[in-house]
């Protein structure tokens, strides 16, 4: 998720604003502490121009590499 966000040139705060959630939600999703569900996952996928499946398949270990 982090890579998808960064590839769009967005900060976590910007992405959160556009999706309609708190910045902490974005950070928790990116760290693997939680997963976005339902409409938030769809909004994020549209914003990042990827499929919801791609967002969920990306592991935290991959992001930190």
From TrEMBL:
GO molecular function, one term: DNA binding
Residue ranges occupied by any HTH cro/C1-type domain in the UniProt entry: 1-55
Transmembrane segments: none
CDD domains the record matches: HTH_XRE
Protein name listed in UniProt: XRE family transcriptional regulator
Organism in which the protein naturally occurs: Slackia isoflavoniconvertens
């Amino acid at each position: 998720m982090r890579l998808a966000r960064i590839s769009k040139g967005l900060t976590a705060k910007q992405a959160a604003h556009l999706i309609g959630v708190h910045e902490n939600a974005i950070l928790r999703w990116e760290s693997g502490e939680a997963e976005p569900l339902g409409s938030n996952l769809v909004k994020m996928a549209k914003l990042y121009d990827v499929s919801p499946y791609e967002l969920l398949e990306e592991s935290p270990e991959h992001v930190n590499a």
